[in-house]
Amino acid sequence: FCGCTALTSVNIPSQVEKIYYCSFQDCSSLTSITLPSGVTEIQTLAFYGCSSLSEMTLLSTNPPTVGENAFAYVDKTIPVYVPCERVGAYHSAAGWSEFSNMIDPCVINFADQNVKALCVANWDTSGDGELSYTEAAAVTSLGEVFKSKTNITSFDELQYFTGLTAINSQAFYMCTYLTSVVVPENVLSIENSAFQQCTRMTSIVLPDGMQVIRPQAFYSCGLTHIDIPETVTVINRHAFASCHGLTE
């Protein structure tokens, strides 16, 4: 396909093991490429001049060897999707380390980097500086990791902490800048003062199947709206006290 300047896409067969010399050189309209899991080598000038590439997907667990100038004139900031937990291997492999935006589809993409830092510090068991969906699902209690943390603003990714059955007492107490949370589907109870004084949190998503909301769970929150699942059978005293903006 060398010099096929109008080529925009191509489906590489799964049995391919090598991308040979100059295979896609100067395919300047090619926007994305997926390399099968069997690819072990990308030879010299293979994708030279593919200046429109906006993303690559690499299915090989072991980084293919890369020949000289194989990706010359390819934007090195494009998303490069690699297999689960293989970002480190690709970053340390010759020819791949220059790509700065390696993406592991098995790690959580946090909107709030302060939340990510706390999660990684407490639950990154692999030590890769990321939190995977598996690591999040293994968490059974939040403890006091987030208590009184005024620098966190959103935690919709809490929904991936599927090992939780309760949002424990004072879990997010005095998180005064927290605006958004999605509670995991397996949570049955919101415990005492779990979200007390979350004054900027205007709404929260509670899962179907929840049963109990304990005393002062949302005391003095900024809630303006909340949908309480039909499965909730217990709402204890002062659960929503001083939520002056709550209208429905």
Task: Give your account of this protein's structure.
The chain is mainly beta. The protein is about 10% helix and about 10% strand. It has a four-stranded parallel sheet with strand order 2-4-6-7. The chain has a four-stranded parallel sheet with strand order 9-11-12-13, with no helix packed on it. Helix 1 links the parallel strand 6 (about 80) and strand 7. It starts with 17 loop residues before the first strand and ends in a 13-residue tail after the last strand.
Structural class: mainly beta
Q: Helix proportion of residues, in percent? A: under 10%
**Spatial arrangement of strands, main beta sheet:** 2-4-6-7
Question: Helix segment count?
Answer: 3
Strand content: 5-15%
Q: What's the overall geometry?
A: elongated
Q: What is the overall pLDDT average?
A: 94
Radius of gyration: 24 Å
Total E-strand runs: 13
Distance from N terminus to C terminus (CA atoms, Å) equals: 62 Å
Q: What is the string of SSEs from the N terminus onward?
A: EEEEEEHEHHEEEEEE
Major sheet: 4 strands, parallel
What low-confidence regions span 5 or more consecutive residues with pLDDT below 50? none
Features:
248 residues; mainly beta; four-stranded parallel sheet; 8% helix
Topology diagram in text:
Layout (H helix, E strand, L loop, with lengths): L17 E2 L12 E4 L5 E2 L12 E4 L6 E2 L13 E2 L5 H5 L10 E2 L9 H11 L9 H5 L16 E2 L10 E2 L12 E2 L7 E2 L21 E2 L20 E2 L13
Nutshell version of this structure?
This protein has 248 residues and is mostly beta strands. It has helices at residues 87-91, 113-123, 133-137; strands spanning 18-19, 32-35, 41-42, 55-58, 65-66, 80-81, 102-103, 154-155, 166-167, 180-181, 189-190, 212-213, 234-235.
